[in-house]
Every structure is written in C-alpha cells, then in structure tokens.
C-alpha cells in the first residue's frame, strides 16, 4: 500500500497540447530535455510564438519553453511534432530532464528521453517529476539525478553507483511510479528513497554533495532578462537553454538585448508572470522589476519596499556573484530559483522582502 503525502488531485502542469488557461490566454509548456535546440527547432518555437501566441518565448527554471496567449494547443502541437519537439503525445508532460548546459551530455539525455517515452507505464508520471543530469544542476531538487556514475535519489547520494545510467534511471522511475500513490515527488513517499537504494544496493563509496552552479553571463552564455525572449531574437541560431534563464550560443552570435556582463543589474533577477498574465497577481511584477533595475539609487533599509524601490544595500555588489533576487506577485512565489535567494513578494501595497 503506497504511503506518504496525499494529493487529492493530479498535478496541473501544462504541456504543448494541454494548455493552462491563464488570464492572458492559453499557456503551453514545451519540454526540451537537456535544453538543446538546433536552429530549426528554435525557429519553429519562435515562429509559433509570433504567429500563434503573444510574440514571446519564456524560459523556465527547468530549462523548458513557454508560449502564452494561445487560442488552443492544436496547431502548436502539430508544429512542435513536425519540428521533432513532441515525439510522444502520451509522455509529453513527463519529459522533464534538466542537464548541465556546459557538459557533453545531450546524447545521454536523448537516450534517457527515448527510454522514458518507450515505457507506457511512465506516461502517468507526475508532471513535477524531475531528472537532473550533471554536477552543476545536481542541487536543483531532482527526484532522480545522475553525476557520473552516482545515482542521486531525491537530491541525496545514498551510495548507489550505476554502470548503465539510462537503464538505472528508468528502473528508478518505475520503482517510484509503483509506490507513489498520489504523491508527485520521490521525497513525498515514505521510505521511497530507501526502497530504491535497497533495490540497487548502496556502496561504501565517498558520498558527493549535490550543488547548483549557475552559468555566469558572457557573450556565449547570455542571460535573458526576466526569462523572456522576443520571437525575433536569436533567429537561426542553435541554442541550449539553461535552468538559469540564460542560453548557450555559438561564438559571434548577436546577443543584442541579452545579458552578457556579470555586473549587469539584470544578472540574477527573476520574476513570476504577474499581471496581466496571472489573475492571482497583486501587481504588474515585471513592470515593477524593470523600474527597480533602472533606478539603482533607490533603497529601503527597513526591508519592506514600495513599487520601484531597489533591494537593500548589500544584496548586490559589483564584481561579486550576486545572490539571486526573485519577485513574485503573490505568496505562491512561482518560479523561485533553488538555493539562497532574496525574494520580494507583492502585498497589494508594495513588496515584502524575504531573505
Ligand atoms: S507567484 Fe502568484 S502572481 Fe506570480 S505567477 Fe504565481 S500565482 Fe501568479
């Protein structure tokens, strides 16, 4: 009998065909396992956003893509399938594989993606289920993770070492599926990590510590302000999407409008959708962030800031890696990056700071 957390409803993660109805229209999420998009695929997404959506492509914290303002998912689904971005109708929402963007791991990710899609029993994995591949993304809270031959379970190295990573990850996903009940994540299943560890057998190898190592902005790894690309940007360019609202591009790419300087005030700043896209939002968060970024002279040492105010002194220091700053339109705090983050949450009368 499955035990652990009880979820009274299935997760509602959108896909490329099953849209989420947002305040600004249909929202599609296009899975990009490993984040790699050859130019033709990226162009298919860009053009779909321009011709079917609101003209923008959003990057998510799992290195997927979103298009907003859609009437329905029918034509988008057909276009994505034609472009090779929707290889399985049945498994489209469970292809959640985020990979270290500067490592040579796309072939492994592709093999894992194909193996997941080939197993009918895995089509009903929760949309929240996540697999991480590589060291720099190992701390992103994956249900399963792979670092070399280390198999991470719910973000923990329990001593499992594997020889065939694709087979091991698929086996672990099946075990999770068999015992999850209504749970969405491995960490929610009582004894789930232990049971999978017992299945493989724990070694006495030294344990590793999962970590998150974001890519710093540069001309070949530009950040995307507030994670939103205009459909005209990076036309004809092969890109690799990172989980940090940035992309990896070939040398010499036109990065106009993107963040290439680590000292940019945009570096490390993220925001939820806010108004007008989200009906729950208490503010036009993105407009507030744009004003905040453009007015560095403003600060509020009291910690509770009004619209347009800048983070308190010390949150960002030139020449250092800034702590990420995330803005939300309500207490749900969607899109909050993993790890140590300074947050501003709309209250209806300004923003509350959470450190
Ligand atoms: S944090 Fe609140 S306002 Fe922002 S997208 Fe989520 S639900 Fe909407």
What does it look like?
Mean pLDDT is 89; it is low at 299-321. It is built from six helices and 18 strands. It has a five-stranded antiparallel sheet with strand order 1-2-5-4-11, covered by helices on one side. It has a five-stranded mixed sheet with strand order 6-7-8-9-10, with helices on one face. Strand 17 and strand 18 form a beta hairpin. The chain starts with 19 loop residues before the first strand and ends with a strand. The chain folds into two domains: 20-200, no CATH class; 261-355, no CATH class. It is α+β, with helices and mostly antiparallel strands and 355 residues long. The site of iron/sulfur cluster has 12 residues, from loops.
Short description:
This protein is an alpha+beta fold and about 350 residues long. It has helices spanning about 40-50, 75-80, 105-115, 165-180, 190-200, 285-295; strands spanning about 20, 25-30, 35, 55-60, 65-70, 95-100, 130-135, 145, 150-155, 155-160, 230, 240, 245-250, 270, 305, 325-330, 340-345, 350-355. Strands 1-2-5-4-11 form a five-stranded antiparallel β-sheet, covered by helices on one side.
């Amino acid at each position: 009998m499955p035990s652990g957390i009880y979820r009274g409803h299935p997760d509602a993660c959108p896909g490329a065909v099953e849209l989420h109805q947002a305040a600004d229209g249909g929202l599609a999420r296009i899975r990009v396992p490993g984040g790699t998009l050859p130019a033709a695929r990226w162009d298919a997404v860009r053009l779909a956003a321009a011709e079917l959506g609101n003209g923008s492509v959003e990057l998510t914290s799992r290195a997927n893509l979103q298009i907003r303002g859609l009437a329905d998912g029918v034509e988008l689904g057909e276009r994505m399938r034609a472009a090779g971005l929707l290889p399985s109708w049945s498994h489209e929402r469970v292809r959640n594989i985020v990979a270290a963007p500067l490592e040579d791991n796309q072939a492994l990710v592709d093999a894992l993606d194909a193996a997941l899609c080939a197993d009918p029993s895995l089509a009903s994995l929760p949309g929240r289920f996540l697999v991480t591949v590589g060291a720099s993304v190992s701390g992103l809270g994956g249900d399963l993770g792979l670092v070399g031959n280390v198999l991470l379970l719910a973000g923990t190295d329990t001593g499992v070492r594997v020889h065939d990573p694709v087979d091991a990850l698929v086996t672990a996903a099946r075990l999770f599926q068999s015992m999850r009940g209504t749970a969405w994540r491995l960490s929610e299943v009582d004894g789930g990590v232990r049971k999978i560890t017992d299945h493989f057998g724990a070694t006495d190898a030294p344990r590793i510590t999962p970590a998150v190592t974001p890519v710093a902005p540069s001309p070949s790894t530009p950040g995307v302000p507030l994670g939103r690309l205009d459909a005209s940007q990076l036309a004809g360019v092969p890109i690799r999407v990172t989980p940090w609202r940035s992309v990896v591009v070939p040398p010499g790419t036109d990065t106009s409008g993107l963040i290439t300087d680590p000292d940019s005030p945009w570096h490390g700043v993220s925001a939820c959708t806010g108004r007008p896209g989200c009906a729950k939002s208490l503010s036009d968060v993105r407009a507030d962030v744009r004003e905040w970024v453009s007015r560095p002279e403003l600060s509020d040492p009291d910690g509770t800031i009004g619209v347009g105010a800048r983070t308190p002194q010390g949150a960002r220091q030139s020449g250092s890696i800034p702590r990420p700053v995330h803005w939300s339109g309500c207490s749900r705090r969607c899109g909050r990056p993993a790890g140590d983050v300074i947050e501003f949450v709309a209250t209806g009368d300004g923003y509350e700071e959470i450190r």
